[in-house]
């Protein structure tokens, strides 16, 4: 009985060097991916906060000029250290009867490694007629 236990213990040695290298490489890839992606999503939360600050301001969104809206958003970006060019360049204001829609749709490209880039696209919409549904684009009906 004792000989069987010793024999079984010899075969249960754990991972070899090649398996450990593979585990470390996979973990390293996911850590690198997280370090590249998390700041992009954190920055987008500041863009969403900037849009929400427009609806909670003292002045109604419909009464503000396009220049005032862009100025307020750019000031918010500067204060909160939004560094990407996408949110500052892609501010669009569309005015319709009795409502205004502010869109900040942009893509951010980050080099992952070698010649492989990671592209993340964000769509942020503020409709003054639906301020509670801030920052998500309106759902489009599906056509068959």
Automatic annotation (TrEMBL):
Protein name: DUF4845 domain-containing protein
Species in which this protein is naturally found: Cellvibrio fibrivorans
InterPro entries registered for this protein in UniProt: DUF4845 (IPR032314)
A matching Pfam family: DUF4845
Keyword flag Transmembrane helix: yes
Keywords recorded for this protein, A-Z: Membrane, Transmembrane, Transmembrane helix
Parts of the chain that traverse the membrane: 20-42
